[in-house]
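tool_call: predict_structure(chain=1)
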Amino acid sequence: MKKTSVFPVKITRFRDGELQDYDDLLAVEEPMEIRLDYTDGQQWFTRSIAVTMRTPGHDFELALGFLFTEGIIREMAQVKGIRYCTEQGHAENRENIVRVYLREDVRPDIGKLQRNFYTSSSCGVCGKQSMEQVRQVCPVHRVSSLVIHDHTMVRLPELLRRVQDVFRFTGSIHAAAFFSGAGKLLMLREDVGRHNALDKLIGAALSGKNQLPDPVNSVLVLSGRASFELLQKAAMAGITIVCAVGAPSSLAVETAGQFDITLVGFLREDRYNIYYDNQRILQKITTS
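tool_result:
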């Protein structure tokens, strides 16, 4: 049975000076393990790569996006298959283990996985290596001519909120979305973890199905703050414009500079801050 992304609960709500019984919805948060099957040419190995707390839904995209943004796979052609591991464990663990099978000619660099990828919905991958290591695995990307007018850009957070279905019911979930330079929504993913939402988005684009958007020519909009990990994932996907509703961290700004990513924070209908490279943002009012 397919897992849902919301969970009904009965609560007692205090409002307008009164206590009332109320039916509410919560965002579901469950662990998901990513296992990798690969061969060295002589025998097959199965390795547990990561455990992340996520909102069920688009799990295969999450696994693909994670493996891609961590530099374990470079393209969808390296993946032979992907499925849930349902033959082990208890019934409640069904669809909580995703198994990714690499092609026989793919040799992943497992040696660079010097840590266990245990993640949480709040902090992402713990023990993140230095930016230099990110630079070493970040692929060379095509040059993008993507630009966006600032009067279009300031409309994106509201457009994002309108289509955040799970957030509308729960108020406790993050979103990542691709928009065109003209402000058209191309794809949206939601998750209780902001890093998971972005991995799902990138994983969907990586799968290349149904004329999905090209990250290189898409504006990435984040519903919350912009952390180093999110900018690292954007760099791996070749994204050149990142717009966040919240603030960026200092390391996120440094990462944007290292990988030539236009980074915008505190994006609202009437204001925004450019933290790196305004050459891709066409402004109606010149800066003073």
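agent: Residues 194-207 form the longest helix (14 residues). Proceeding to next step.
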